[in-house]
Design a protein that fits this description.
The chain is built from 12 helices and 13 strands. By secondary structure, it is α+β, with helices and mostly antiparallel strands. This is CubicO group peptidase, beta-lactamase class C family.
Length: 314
């Protein structure tokens, strides 16, 4: 029995609705299953954040941004009347590591501001609760990658989707990219990227390759290593035995014990990168039992099956 077949049987037995599952080894698809033969695209929700993280790495290498620059200095029109030093001193590094100092989440899917606020950058500065000094407290948050994408747009003159079109998406085989914008035209960055199982697997392979895909360097190996380094301990758990508390790198969840990097989005979107094995596990699903930032790895049924049937078996 193949890995994916066993996974599908266990998932279906648990009442889970899988859309696609794929295993890559050494750059090749070795096993897969898809509910729709044409492999349509689906929104991958917070998986988008890791794409934004790679975008920041490219912008760093092009000299557009620096890790320690203050974000507020690039948005004087949105922060001109802000006096809170915590809000004014947030850096690129703080956004990447989800340590911007916020004590409350912003721009969540069901948030009021997503439906009624037009200028989300101004909303960030005016409504944000910057209780903590930047760099000191982890809080998983949609607004951090959004502001990061807006900064790259400000420096490059292109929104994040267009900035990455020929720098990332086309080189890894993601064509005519679909990524939603906010009311002001800025790429949302935190979510709303639509891709299929092949495309997400190809992106994961680029990360497993240390920033290279099909012989083309996308982003430096040193930056990928930085992305996959844990800078904060989180409240999430990897369902290993015993469960491992997940860390957080640059817009990426980190399992430092089992040497894995995770992308995940609500409703069961996963891409697990295992660089030491040169393996990538990708699962897309519609699984309402999966939590978002409050989900727990050691209790989520789907995450446990992915871990047991796929991640540990490659």
């Amino acid at each position: 029995m193949t890995l994916v077949k066993r996974f599908m049987e266990d998932a279906e037995r648990g009442g889970m609705h899988i859309l696609a599952a794929q295993v890559r080894m050494n750059g090749e698809i070795v096993d897969e299953w898809t509910r729709f033969p044409a492999k349509p695209r689906f929104e991958t929700y917070s998986v988008s954040k890791t794409f934004a993280g790679v975008g920041a790495g490219i912008a760093l290498e092009e000299g557009l941004i620096t890790l320690d620059e203050r974000i507020s200095e690039s948005f004087p029109e949105a922060s001109y009347d802000i006096t809170d030093e915590n809000a004014l001193s947030i850096t690129v590094r703080d956004l990447l590591t989800m340590t911007s100092g916020l004590s409350e989440t912003m721009l969540w899917r069901d948030g009021y501001e997503r439906k009624y606020e037009r200028d989300w950058i101004r909303f960030f500065y005016k409504a944000g609760k910057f209780v903590n000094k930047p760099g000191t407290a982890f809080l998983y948050n949609n607004v951090n990658p959004y502001i990061l994408g807006c900064l790259i747009e400000k420096k490059s003159g292109q929104n994040l989707r267009e900035y990455l079109r020929y720098r990332l998406f086309e080189p890894v085989g993601i064509h005519n990219v679909e990524w939603t914008s906010c009311p002001m035209g800025h790429t949302i960055a935190a979510n709303a990227l639509q891709i299929n199982v092949d495309e997400l697997g190809q992106f994961g392979q680029m990360l497993a390759n240390g920033g290279e895909y099909n012989g083309k360097r996308i982003v430096s190996e040193s930056y990928i290593k930085a992305m996959m380094t844990s800078y904060s301990e989180t409240g999430e758990y990897i369902p290993s035995q015993p469960p491992v508390r997940a860390g957080y790198g640059y817009q990426t969840w980190i399992d430092g014990v089992n040497h894995a990097a995770y992308m995940w989005g609500i409703f069961g979107q996963y891409c697990v990168v295992l660089p030491e094995k040169n393996a990538v596990v990708t699962v897309l699903s519609l699984e309402p039992s999966d939590g978002g930032s409050n989900g727990n790895y050691d209790t989520s049924p789907l995450r446990k099956v992915i871990w047991e049937d796929l991640v540990t078996q490659v």
